[in-house]
Amino acid sequence: MRYGTIAALAALMVAVAVISPSTASSSEGLSISLNIPGENPVLNSLGEPVLVAGFWHDLTLNLEDPTQDRVTLEALSVDSGPGYMANRYLWERDEVNDTWSDPLYGFFVEPALSSSEGQKLTFRLGVDTTATAGKWELNVNQDGVSLGRFPLEVRDPILGYGLSSADFNFRAEPFKQAEFDSEDFGQYLRVLNHGNVPLRMSVSFDKLQGRISLINPSDIAHVNDERKYYLHLDLDPRPPQIIQVKGISRVELTQLIPSPGASRIIPAIEEEFGLKVTIGRAGYAVRTVGEVVFQTLDSLTADYGSLVTWQVFLTGDEQVSLDIEVVNAQLIGVLGGDEMLSLPVVLNPTPNAELPLTLQVLTVVPSTTAEVIFTLTLLETGEVTVYKTMIMVGARPPSPPLQPSLMWFFASLVSASVLAITTYNHWRFVSMSPSDLRQMISKTSGKAGRRPRKGQKGGDNGT
């Protein structure tokens, strides 16, 4: 969030309180109050009303009896000598003719916003910004009779404010209506009024006029007040794109009197802020090259040895060539619908529909980051832009150990084989006839008998 502050220029503040006239020259039952319209009354350290030069105030008289003729207010500077609009002002109410006037200058009373209600008179009045700051005295006369004198303090206007703005970001799906309130995302403009005048906040935009509006309970930032202003976006269906909007926040003074001295006051201050509207699929990065918008995933994760499949989308009004290179992985294919495409491929996207392409990538290197590199070339201008999708590939899974059940299976198989052979041989011997058994033994003895020693005859021991 950025923050800018502009202080001490010109403005107003003031507005005061209900006081009683000084005892030296006063009439019982008379009181006055003074305040800037919409603001609270302000008193100085002596309890005296404060009037800010150059701005409208409501000065209300509470009379003992309803006025029948003329009431005159005269304000005189205690601290200065003669000077045009510097040290003397006069305001009159003619009850008979129902008029309100400024006999001296003609600038400093608002008849339409002044009122008379029996014993209560309210003058919408003020003094010029060239009026001398300091102590003043207000004399009240009714039908030529003095009702009292009231001390005032006139102060120079001070415009002091702080403005901070969020980085406004909105995101919408392609070709769909969407509405957003920045309050839902905690994004707002904030105005802190630390001057002595009320301020009015307004905003304007260089794009999407009529689609973006200011949400706030009041456009006025009162003295010593803080206001938050939220934005509302009503977006019509649009193709994928990124819209960078420049906003202008305008802080202007309210209740400024259009008198000759008003030219000394800066009536408004402007400051820029940004707003970004991204129209694209959820989770997809939206990239632009010329009049072509390309959407792909920034990154994704995959297991080693898996086939990764995802789609990219193109929209626009230019013919573009697309080539794809893969690092630390193997590109299996690129499909446009059901057709396998040969790279590089020339594409003709349209602005009113997304052109989808399906990618298939095999992860062949474990524990690495594979890169899918897209190179887009505008055929008309030759402009080349490169984008990447990163694939975080997992580790190679370990070989599974030989399970105990498998070892018992092989051991059992060997034992069963030995038992079967032994049983078979035993059955052979038992099932032979005596003559067959003698014959087999005779043959076995003939083949397996020991060789006679040297000098010894074979046979039946000479019998």
Structure report:
With 463 residues, the protein is mainly beta. It has three domains: 145 residues, Macroglobulin (MG2) domain (Immunoglobulin-like, Sandwich); 119 residues, Sandwich (Immunoglobulin-like); 110 residues, Immunoglobulins (Immunoglobulin-like, Sandwich). It has two helices and 32 strands. The strands form six sheets. Strands 1, 12, 14, 15, 17 and 19 form a six-stranded antiparallel beta sheet that branches. A six-stranded mixed beta sheet has the order 3-11-10-5-6-7, with no helix packed on it. Strands 22-23-25-30-27-28 form a six-stranded antiparallel beta sheet, with no helix packed on it. The longest helix is centred in the last third of the chain and has 28 residues. The N terminus and C terminus are likely disordered.
Q: Quick summary of this structure?
A:
With 463 residues, this protein is mainly β. It is built from 2 helices and 32 strands.
Strand content: over 45%
Overall 3D shape? rod-shaped
Proportion in helices = under 10%
Q: What's the CATH architecture name of the largest domain?
A: Sandwich
Q: Assign the CATH class of the largest domain.
A: Mainly Beta
Contiguous low-pLDDT stretches (5 residues minimum) are: 1-27, 444-463
Number of helices: 2
The N- and C-terminal alpha carbons lie at a distance of: 126 Å
| Fold-level CATH name of the largest domain | Immunoglobulin-like
The CATH homologous superfamily of the largest domain is called: Macroglobulin (MG2) domain
State the secondary-structure class: mainly beta
